[in-house]
Structure prediction request, 353 residues.
Amino acid sequence: MKELIDKLYETNSLSPEELKILIDNRNPEVAEYLFEKARAVRVENYGYDVYIRGLIEFTNYCKNDCYYCGIRRSNCKANRYRLTKEEILECCQVGYDLGFRTFVLQGGEDEYFTDEKIIDIVDSIKTRYPDCALTLSIGEKSYKSYKAYFDAGADRYLLRHETANPDHYRKLHPKAQSLENRKHCLYNLKIIGYQVGCGFMVGSPYQTTDCLVEDLIFIKELEPHMIGIGPFIPHKDTPFGHKEGGSLELTLFLLAIIRLMLPAVLLPATTALGTIHPRGRELGLMAGANVVMPNLSPKYVRKKYMLYNNKISTGDEAAESLNDLKKRIEAIGYQISVSRGDHKSVLVEELVF
Ligand code: SAH
Prediction:
C-alpha cells in the first residue's frame, strides 16, 4: 500500500484499479502514512493556515426531494424559514467583526428567492464588504442565472455532485433530478469563472468502493477549487432515516487521498465530520483539510436547518463557537487566517494581470 501512496504523492494520480486497491486495503497504519503525506502537501501549499468561511443558512425551503436530506420538500415536519436581506447582512456584520472574510450563502432550492432577489443580496453584501469573498450554494440553476450572480459579484459556488455514478445518483434522488444536469451545472460554473466546489457524502446508502473511485476520477477531471466531503448522517424524517451512517475513518482516508490528488485544493473539515465525532474537524485537518465553515446563521433558525440528526453548533452564538474552534485549531499546531483564503491559482492570476 505504501508504494501506491508514494506514487499518488509523486504523480498526484492513480488509476481506478489502484484507487480501489488502496481504499479496500486500508488499515490504521496505511492511513497514518497517508495522513503524513497529506499534511506535508497541505503545508507546502498553504502553510499552517486554516481558512474560515462564515456559513449563512438563509432558507430551508426546497423544491427538491433528495431522499437523504432533512429539508427535502416532502418532510412536512421541517419548520420552514427564510431570512430577510437585512438579517443576512446582520449575519455578515457579526462575521466580519469576528474576522470572517468569506461568507457562504447556502439554502434549499427556494423559488421565493428569484434571480432578482439573489442579485440584490449579492450586490448588497459585496458593496458593503468589498474585501470579502462571497460563495453561493443554492443548487442547480441555468447558465444565465449563474452568470448573473457572478456579474453581481459572487466569487465562488458550492454544488456537491453527490455521486459520480448515474445509477447511484438515481438511488439517492427522485427522477426529476439527474447527475447529467448536476455535472452540466458544475462545468457551466467553471466556464463562467467561479471558484467551484463539488463533493459527495461518504457512506451514503448504496455507495460502493466503485462509486467512490468514480467520485475521485470525476474530481480529478473537473479539477475544482474546493471539495466538500462529509459522512452521510441519517435524518429521522427522511426515507433514509434508518440507513447506516458513513464512518469517520473512511471520510478521513478520502480527505487525505483528495489532498494528494489535488494538492492545492481548498478542503473543508465539514460540520458533518464534527457531528459524528467530538474531534472530527481537528482529525479532518490532521488528514489534509485546510478549511472550516462555522455557522453564522442567527441562533433562532439554526435548529431548523437540520439536514441530518444531531447537527452541531445549533445552540451556540457565532462568537463562542469561533473561540472554541480557534483554541482547538491552535492546540493541533494550526492557526486561523483572517483572509479571503482564495485558491492558489487565483492568487497567481491576480499577480500576473
Ligand atoms: N441546495 C443546495 C445545498 C444543499 S445542502 C445544493 O443543492 O447544493 C448541502 C449539502 O449537505 C448537500 O450537498 C449534501 O451533500 C449534504 N447533506 C444533505 N443531507 C445530508 C445528510 N443527511 N447527511 C450528510 N450530509 C447531507
